[in-house]
Design goal:
This protein is an alpha/beta fold. It is built from 16 helices and 13 strands. Strand 4, helix 10 and strand 5 form a beta-alpha-beta unit. The structure holds uracil (URA). Uracil binds next to helix 9. The site of uracil (URA) has 6 residues, from helix 9.
């Protein structure tokens, strides 16, 4: 193990635990000692778990969080993409339900001339993962090597790969322990986890979509803003510009939840037929990126440019280029039936009778309905059913009436349908009086 010492005495993990438990700030040497010890295995899991719990209770300053992020970034390979060009973008969402933004954002921004180098994860907890969704496209390879990732960004201006163990490996070790020790929901730990991977992936500006609401890790707007501020401050301290937007994840984004159905919705969005909220989020995040990259003078001009790329079919063409480059079959753009498709579809009806408004739609419960049909994992490595899913007919604030279709369930067996339908009954809450539609973009940081 690398011997890291202060002037007077060698560092010991027990002292870091005691210091954090008492609410003190760690030094750079202590943080380096911690990450070196995690990487060479000299810090046992029980001490690391204890330290993680102390961080959960005592938190960390922004400077400390930046030191932790930097040390975690440097625990593995750090990509240098500077040869590709002066501006390379990345986008990260903190995870939600029905969030297929990356599938639209990456080809759209590449069509606008901004290279996009995007490493994505698989589903985590109740939230879906971009990498899993892309695997619904026949042949699409997500496990690409770092060399191919870089080559592809150079040649076609975009790549979407699976998060590799070579980048920020300290995060993999810490995350596995956090997952089983009740220490996931700590703002400095989430911040260091996300930012270390983003910084190691080499992009020189990052657009962050911090989700808030019952379908997200941050349930309240206050906590989501705190996380967004922490990530943009750490980005500033480590000289990597970050623009963060806090968006609603009380209800799913868009109408489709599931793998194949989400890919279809992303393609429809690139064709200009996407749901309002997904289209709006892609234009908002995309216009921030265009302004940052100096390709538009303001967001208004940037939105017009992005909309033109959708209207002209360039954005869709760009997705075809990405699919082909990663071994996928681009016939999917015109023929959705080549993806895994559920055996049956059946509507889930609005209960009661007469005019009603959808008062609340619980994104987490919709995700659970899909998971009950096999769309999610209960443990790492479980296979996922790409074909099943839920397509929502109404969103919060929409008016409807008893007996109308609230959602369409895509399923293979009657057991799956019954399990999903009973979970959806918990997801929808109706009202007899007018309900306002919720705001999608809650704050910009
Ligand atoms: N996603 C991550 O990569 N890390 C976290 O800590 C939470 C969400």
């Amino acid at each position: 193990m690398v011997a890291v010492t202060t002037k007077s005495k060698p560092l010991r993990m027990i002292d870091l635990i005691l210091s954090k438990r008492a609410g003190h700030e760690h030094t750079a040497a202590e943080i380096d000692f911690l990450i070196a010890g995690i990487m060479d295995g000299s810090i046992p899991d029980y001490q690391l778990a204890s330290w993680l719990m102390a961080v959960c209770w005592r938190s960390m300053t922004l400077e400390e969080t930046a030191l932790l992020t930097d040390a975690m970034r440097n625990s593995g390979q750090v990509l240098d993409l500077s040869a590709i060009g002066p501006v390379i973008g990345d986008k990260h969402s903190t995870g939600g339900v029905g969030d297929k933004t990356t599938l639209v954002f990456v080809p759209l921004l590449a069509a606008a001339g901004i290279p996009m180098a995007k490493l994505s994860g698989r589903g985590l907890g109740h939230t879906g993962g971009t990498i899993d969704k892309l695997e619904a496209i026949p042949g699409f390879q997500v496990d690409i090597s770092i060399d191919q990732f870089i080559k592809q960004v150079k040649e076609i201006g975009m790549a979407i790969g699976g998060q590799t163990a070579e980048l920020a490996p300290a995060d993999g070790k810490i995350y596995a322990l956090r997952d089983v020790t009740g220490t996931v929901e700590s703002i400095p730990l989430i911040c260091a986890s996300v930012m270390s991977k983003k910084l190691a992936a080499g992009a020189n500006f990052i657009i962050l979509d911090v989700k808030c609401g019952r379908g997200a890790f941050m349930e309240t707007e206050e906590k989501a803003i705190e996380l967004a501020q922490a990530m943009s401050s750490v980005g500033r301290l480590l000289k990597r510009p970050v623009t963060a937007v806090v968006t609603d994840m009380e209800q799913p984004l868009g109408r489709a939840v599931g793998h194949t159905v989400e890919v279809i919705e992303a393609i429809e969005t690139l064709k200009g037929n996407g749901p309002d909220d997904l289209t709006e989020l892609c234009l908002e995040l995309g216009s921030l990126a265009l302004v940052h990259a100096g390709k538009a003078k303001d967001q208004k001009q940037a939105r017009v440019a992005l909309q033109a790329l959708i209207d002209s079919g360039e954005a869709l063409k760009s997705f075809g280029v990405l699919i082909r480059a990663q071994g996928g079959d681009d016939k999917v753009l015109t023929d959705y039936s080549i993806m895994p498709t559920a055996k049956h579809t059946k509507p889930y009806m609005v209960p009661g009778s007469g005019k009603q408004w959808l008062e609340h739609l619980d994104g987490k419960k919709v995700a659970e309905a899909c998971k009950l049909m096999g769309a999610g994992r209960t443990k790492k490595g479980d296979p996922v059913n790409m074909a099943v899913g839920v397509v929502l007919n109404i969103k919060t604030g929409d008016s409807t009436e008893g007996g109308a279709t609230a959602a369409v369930i895509h399923y293979d067996t009657e057991e799956q349908f019954s399990a999903a339908a009973s979970k959806l009954a918990e997801a929808f809450t109706f009202s007899n009086s007018f309900v306002e539609k919720p705001k999608l973009i809650k704050a910009s940081v």
